[in-house]
Design a protein that fits this description.
Number of domains: 2
CATH class of the largest domain: Mainly Beta
Helix content: under 10%
CATH topology of the largest domain: Neuraminidase
Shape: elongated
Largest sheet: 5 strands, antiparallel
CATH architecture of the largest domain: 6 Propeller
């Protein structure tokens, strides 16, 4: 998405645009209004390779190296890959660990595919979608300042060959947040924000001429970039679609210059029948919208929920609300926290957890199906995700802890199977899972050779290729006289061959699948 430049207050940007206020504790940076992005001494995506992956055959790739913090039950993990995107906690000092960008990991937390977005921007929310009937990857990337102000960015769409299919920005005065982008046919739904000035907020203990961060969702034609539909909560100059009185986040004081992040939209999810589910963190509610009329069909949670249920169905400050075909609702229940006037966070409502609810839309009741709670995980201040893994609804669950640098896979009973941790100041807004991503890069495999004394080592990799089971190494005195020298099973992102006393001057690599079919061939190389 081609983002419009915007002037968003610091607190609004930290909460609404990025949710980057929180580090691993429950404190937030003090928030003061800003009118423009200040100059940065160092790029926001500055990184160190210490604690990151380095590859001889792919010297420009340095994704972060994750570790597990509990025993992994490998046999119980769902077969597939994790889709993540690392970006920095803006309140933490120092560089990131490894480059930032969209990243696919296998269930050993080793890289499958990585695309660095450079040091001048950040990336978030990698998801697998379907466009023109084909699987694609979608993520957000953009430029933000050290104070969390979003200045520009776009949503990227690439095919299974990792070729760019589309890039889309929002129409002014709207700015697209990193929170969600979902392809629906040939259109894309996104979460958007704009600052609306000259609002009388005195009844909410705010300024007579205050500013509100309006939140909404938009639908675009992905091919042309044409704006097709907009729904927003504030609906200036008309009756609000969501009243400001629904907000659980207090308005800034009358003397403050901050915009009020009253809504904080963080999910847009098209559902069968043409309706759209929208989640707003700061109203503690999810709304089912009818785009044809612009009306709210029902509200789940918040001050005026349309569903009655026991106390264990309540949630607060939630993210990633999804409506499943069986009338179940999944979400990450942050249960934390309001931002206080001093910039700190209020006490959490309870532990953060992945939550599964069941709706009875006829009786307007809600019941809890299950909750995935980590025994040692404190409350997540911002961000987070929850996904039931195939086969739904009886499969495992993947819970991402957002501003806490962890994600976990659980079995259906809630048993912890894998507990991954990001290094340094890295974090991921959402953590997604794919059981069927097939990457067939349009570019060839990569190879490199290193010699030390009589020992020759050849390195092989193919960024994003998911079907490689084995590598064949060819060598010879020239590129026209190559013979097979060795074969070896793929051993991770990079596979190495040790060749004692090799007289070969030129090498080439062939990637093969599990049946021995050739998938790709590198260029010949001598160093």
């Amino acid at each position: 998405m081609r983002f419009a430049d915007n002037l968003i207050s610091k607190s609004a940007s930290l909460g609404a645009s990025l949710g980057l206020i929180a580090a691993t504790g429950l404190t937030a940076a003090a928030t003061a209004g800003v009118a423009a992005a200040p100059a940065q001494a160092t790029p926001i995506g500055a990184y160190t390779t210490k604690g990151a992956w380095s590859f001889v055959s792919a010297p420009n790739l340095h994704p972060p190296k994750l570790r597990t913090v509990a025993r992994t039950v490998a046999k119980k993990l769902a077969p597939g890959d994790f889709l993540v995107a690392n970006f920095p906690k803006v309140t933490a000092k120092g560089p990131m660990t490894g480059q930032g960008g969209p990243l696919i990991l296998d269930n050993r937390l080793q890289p499958v595919w990585f695309a660095s977005v450079g040091t001048g921007q950040v990336a978030a929310d990698l998801q697998q979608e379907v466009y023109n009937g084909q699987p694609v990857l979608v993520w957000w990337q953009g430029l933000v300042t050290r104070t969390g102000v979003t200045t520009k960015g776009e949503v990227e769409v690439v095919d299974q060959h990792y070729r760019k299919l589309a890039a889309l920005r929002a129409k002014r005065p709207w700015v697209v947040s990193l929170h969600d982008a979902v392809i629906d046919g040939n259109t894309i739904w996104v979460t958007v924000y704009r600052t609306v000035a000259n609002q009388d907020l005195r009844r909410y203990h705010g300024a007579a001429r205050g500013a509100v961060l309006d939140a909404g969702v938009q639908q675009y034609d992905l091919r042309t970039g044409k704006l097709l539909f907009t729904w927003d909560a504030l609906n200036p100059h008309h009756k609000a679609n969501i009243a400001l009185s629904e907000s659980r986040q207090a308005a800034p004081s009358a003397s403050s210059h901050e915009a009020w992040d009253a809504y904080h939209v963080n999910t847009v999810a098209p559902v069968p029948g043409g309706q759209v589910l929208v989640s707003m963190r700061n109203t503690w509610a999810a709304y089912l919208l009818d785009p044809k009329t612009g009306r709210v069909v029902w509200t789940l949670g918040g001050r005026h929920s349309g569903f009655k249920g026991p106390a264990n169905t309540r949630f607060a400050w939630q993210h990633d609300v999804q409506l499943l075909p069986n009338s179940e609702v999944t979400m990450f229940n942050d249960n934390c926290c309001a931002i206080l006037a001093n910039g700190r966070l209020a006490r959490p409502n309870g532990p953060s957890a992945g939550l599964v609810l069941r709706l009875n839309t006829a009786a307007r009741t809600v019941s809890r199906v299950k909750s995935f709670v980590h025994s040692h995980r404190p409350s997540t201040a911002f961000l987070g995700s929850m996904q039931l893994l195939p086969p739904v609804p009886s499969g495992n669950a993947l819970v991402g802890y957002g501003s806490l640098p962890f994600f976990s896979e659980y079995d259906p009973s809630g048993r912890l199977l894998l507990d991954g941790q990001w290094p340094g100041k890295d974090q991921s807004y959402r953590d997604r899972f794919s059981a069927n991503w097939v990457g067939t890069p349009s570019y060839p495999p990569s190879g490199a050779v290193r010699r030390r004394g009589s020992q020759t080592t050849v390195y092989a990799s193919w960024n994003g290729a998911t079907g490689v089971a084995r590598w064949l190494l060819l060598g010879g005195s020239s590129s026209s006289q190559l013979r097979q020298r060795a074969t070896k099973p793929r051993t991770g992102f990079e596979t190495s061959f040790s060749l004692p006393h090799s007289a070969d001057k030129v090498f080439q690599l062939v990637a093969a699948d599990s049946l021995g079919h050739q998938l790709g061939r590198s260029k010949s190389f001598s160093r």
